[in-house]
Structure formats: C-alpha cells, structure tokens
Amino acid sequence: MKTVLLTGFEPFGGETVNPSWETVRRLDGEIIAGARVSARRLPCAFGAALDELRRQLDALHPDVAIAVGQAGGRSDIAVERVAINIDDARFPDNDGKQPIDVPVIPNAPAAYFSTLPIKAIVAALRERGLPATVSQTAGTFVCNHAMYGLLHHGAPQAGFIHLPFLPEQAARHPGAFSLSLDDGVAALRIAVETSLSRADDLVLSCGATH
Ligand code: PCA
C-alpha cells in the first residue's frame, strides 16, 4: 500500500492553534485513493523541524509527502511552487532562534521546485469551489526551511501547501481571510488524491507579476 506523509506545525507567533496541524491530524490513518495517510506534527523551529521531518521520511518512506503550514496573511490555499535555500526570520522561532541570511543546507542548490502537480491541485481545488492559487514564494521562515529540507531529502512526490487562518483565529485579526477546518481537510484530501493520480502537471496560467 502506498504511504502519504502529511505534516503540520505547532502554533507560533502568539496563536494558540495552527490550522496546518489541526487539519492534517484529522486525516491521520485515513485511506485516500488506496494510500494510507500518516500525519505528524513539526516544531516551529529552524533545525528541529527538519530533524523531525527527516526522522519521519526515514521511518515511513512516503510515496507522497506534503508539508502544510499556516499563512495568516494569505487569502486562499497557497500551493507552493518553490523553496529557496535561505533562512531569514523576521521574528524568533519557537526556540528563540532568529537566523538571518544563512542557508537551510550549506553547499546545496539555491532552490528546489515542488514535485507535486501544483497546477492540477489548484485546478481540482477550484473545481470543488475552494479558493486556491499557486504561490511563488513560501517566505523565508520555518515553512520555507521545511519545504527546502523536504525536497532536498526527497520523496517521489513532495511539496508544501500554506493554509489561511481558521475562522476562530481570523476573529482576532479583523479583515483576515479564513478557511474552515472542514474545507481545509477537504482541500488536503483533494491535494493528496490529485498527487496520487498523476505524475505530470497541467498547463494552467497561474503566474504572478510580482
Ligand atoms: N507557518 C510558518 C512556520 C510555521 C507555520 O505554520 C511559515 O509560514 O513559515
């Protein structure tokens, strides 16, 4: 049976929940398109997040690995295209570390592209009425760090998805977009199904001017 690893992060930045962990934990043990899902939580800390991710990759050898994180400022489900080899934190992580302009992995490539069918995922999400887009940057905080490490260490298909705030979080951030837990769970199920069902991607205009 194929194996899917989904990871979510612990809360950070003053939040008491992280939609990524709340969402992936709901899918732990589920069989999606004949593959078994394992959900794991990562610390929101440079280094420690990658150590845990590596442990899980070594233990599970997943066919598909999707790391998920919170992007409170985003207004849709952001399927990340690329991870860059830089840590540049605007505020300390949960261990109090704030790396500035250091590589995620020294002497490794500048960037890695997601190996998920990112545009097919966006198209499938939109078809089911869920707001989604391809994101051209996963930032330079712990999520980009984890995505870069995931792609460096590898799984046949691997990538990263950022989720907006949950409604209960958005209630404390007036004006912020939110996505319900049920919609987040449905979105990740679709992302996993789409990844398992195709290796190639769609040609779909989803670019950005900045
Ligand atoms: N989001 C942060 C790190 C953990 C998370 O859920 C980020 O976007 O880097």
From TrEMBL:
Its EC number is 3.4.19.3. The gene is pcp. It is an enzyme of class 3 (hydrolase). Signal peptide: none annotated. GO terms for biological process: proteolysis. The active site is at E80, C143, H162. It comes from Chromobacterium phragmitis. Belongs to the peptidase C15 family. Keywords: Cytoplasm, Hydrolase, Protease, Thiol protease. It is found in: Cytoplasm. The keyword Transcription does not apply. It catalyses: Release of an N-terminal pyroglutamyl group from a polypeptide, the second amino acid generally not being Pro. This is Pyrrolidone-carboxylate peptidase.
